[in-house]
Amino acid sequence: MKTKGIVRRLDDLGRIVLPIEMRRSFDLAEHDRVEICMEGDSIVLRKYETNCLFCGGSKDLKEFHGKQICAKCAKSIGAL
Hints:
alpha+beta; Pemi-like Protein 1, Chain: D
């Protein structure tokens, strides 16, 4: 993994501030969700994208019982 050479300190609550250049590069805005995961001995941050539980689509999503479902799949389920 290539580093950008930016070093940040954790605050008392374990938070860091992502530099504005990185937020712009990854199209991260205030209140966007970020996924935090471990890969080997690294911590990886990714912009969290939600998808439809059934088809994996990302358009016209609605939440149903805590899960994301697109309008097309919701319509198909309604036809059952």
